[in-house]
Amino acid sequence: MKIRLLLSIIFVFTFLQIHAQKKELSLSENVNKETISFQFIKNLVVVPITFNGHQMNFIVDSGLKETILFSQYDKTINKNNLRQINLKGLGKDNADTKGFFSSKNQIVLGQNYSSNNMDIIVIQDENFNLFSRLGIDVHGIIGSEFFKNYPIQVDYAKRKITIYKSILEVKKLKKFQSNPLEISPEIKPFTTVDFTHQTTYTNQKMLIDIGNSDGLWLFENQIENLAPLQHVFSDELGKGFNGSINGKRGVIDAVNLDKYKLNQPLIAIPDIESIQYLNLKNNRKGSIGNEILRRFTIILDYKNQLFYYKPNRNFKDAFHYNRSGLTIIHDQFE
Length: 334
What we know:
The protein contains 3 helices and 26 strands.
């Protein structure tokens, strides 16, 4: 009887441990990798997700900490455990966006990457309907939870994302260049690039922002003596939780990721009013978005703090202006 009782206690304890771990996205046991096909629409990575048993499409965003669900689809969550919050983020407006915090949600990507107890934020803004811009229903955004526990490879050319149990599982890793990857307390990934615009700016700290459809954002007030852009014009750069993100678009001479040089890239400079809620105390100079990242196969390895990249068949593509206006970023919840 004592032996049977002890075994029962061990079983229950192990069961509880396993389910506690499932709060975060994790690979199934005895699985070394999971590959997921994605759609690349208007320079945004859109993955299929099973959310609380419902088939949905989420944008993948390495620049966002939380996982977001748009309010049009809140019938898929348990409303008994909601807590109201305010959201501050990019945009020129001063008013906060209202939202709700929800726990105990189930998310499954592919066959073997899942969580049974996921925290999400529900945005209470009916204007976040992206069908007219993307042509498909987009139900939410998945942020740093997607990346933080495993090396994640994004193959833009083949439209495949691979989650690896270990970086040792990556074949032909020696073909990739690598840069140090700094992970902020908000679980956002930063690396450094060089860019040239009349003068060369070296080791400029940039957010690796897979949720940004532009190529490069520069924060003009953080960069000393930045010359006026070539072929510049004013534009709406995207939409944040605090309204439209306005700024300028134009051309600079070059951007370098180590030995790889991209000439005459199109870049964007958001107005100061549009980034008023961003935390820029960490020496950040801007963001690298998908118009540059899509020219590479990349791997983000948060645990080992390394950013891997190698050129793909898109590397020599001409740069085109992004008209989707879909950069959706926040900085904090209250």
